[in-house]
Every structure is written in structure tokens, then in C-alpha cells.
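User: C-alpha cells for this one?
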Amino acid sequence: MNALTLQWHDAGQTKTQKIHETQPSKNPGTIRIGRDPVRCDIILSHPTVSGLHIEIFFNAQQQRFLIKNLREQNPPLVDGQKLVQGEMPLSEGSIIYLGQQQLKVTEVSVPGGSTVPPTILTPPQPQATNPPPIPVAQPQLHPNYYQPTPQPHQQPHQQPQPQLHPNYHQPAPQPQVVAHHHHPVTPVVQQQPQPQGVYGLQCPRCKKLSSYKHLLLGCQHCGHSLQDALSVLVPPTR
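Assistant:
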């Protein structure tokens, strides 16, 4: 019989519960776990467990036990993975966390199940062989056919080169004279940088400017302190 064994600690005690495939329950076909004794088959007392938290059932098609979440706001952790929707398979050694309550699958017994996939035998395929070459029929010549004799290859006709007299003097080639046009060079005039002005201190009392030398001495016009004076850019004098 297909069965799964759960083990957990509750109030300092170790508890074990075996779940069978055809075990009678409050929801036929599944075993529900949570804190609500009215709706659940396995009751847990830890306050972090939901009233109706999970259910465990056997899938005959997959030949394995599956776990399903019934509380989206408090999803369980199955082997370190959060199960929000759908199902996950359980195997021997799986760890389930419902809130802070831990449950461990200590044994899974599926006598009819097998984790080894079936062996598929395929018949041997015949090896492809190269087809024999197809003979090409040679053309038959008529008995009275006359085959012309191949002619030797003729060189192209060359024009005769003129013969020069022994005392003929060939003039030497004259060097080619290339005319150069000189363009006047325009001198580059460097522009002098324009002065950008200097900074001065504007007296907060008389609004006149003083140089930075009077920062600690005071305004050179009225003697007022320049500690709170504004720094002003004075344009250069043309």
C-alpha cells in the first residue's frame, strides 16, 4: 500500500503520522493539515500555522505523493522553495515548514512505483550502401564516318619589326618639366587673449568696490568690515 510518514515536534514531544493512499479523511482523497480541528485531519498547535494550511494526497498517474498549499497569505516552504500555487512532489527526507513549524518526511513507500524509466528498444536500422555507378553508353559511329585529322596549333601572325641602320642614333628622352605655381603665404596673426576682468569686494554699506587686499582691513572707502562683502567681477577697462 502506498504510504507516507510525517514526523514533527509539538509541545516538546515527537509525533509521527502515517498517511495512506486510501486513508479515510474529512476531505476524501486528501489529508489536510492545520490548526482547525473541524477541517483538518492532522492538528498542529503552533500559532504560526494557519487554520487550514496544506493538504497531502497520492497522485496515481505520477505514482507519488504531492503537497498543495491552501493558504496563499502563508505559503509553506518545501525543501527551501516557497509553494504559493500548484503542487510539489514529496520524497523521503523532504522538509516542510508551515510558518515556524517543521515537518519531515521520514519514509515514502510506493511498491508499484519505480523511479527508473522504462527501457525502449529500437530495431537496428539498415546501413545505407552506395548504389553502383550507372554505365554511360558510348556513341556508335557510322562505318563510313570520316574523322578529320587534328591540325597543329598555329601561332598568331606577328608584325615584322623594322630594322634600324647601324649608324642610327636614338635621341635620349627629355625630362618632363612640371610647372609649379607659387601661392602667396598669408601670415597667421595670433590674437592676444582678452582680459576677463578682475574680482573685487563690494562693501555692504557704501556699495563700493575694494580689492581683496582690504579683506581683513575693511572697506578702503568707508572702513566698514568686508567679511560679509559680495565678490563682484569688475570688467576690464578699454
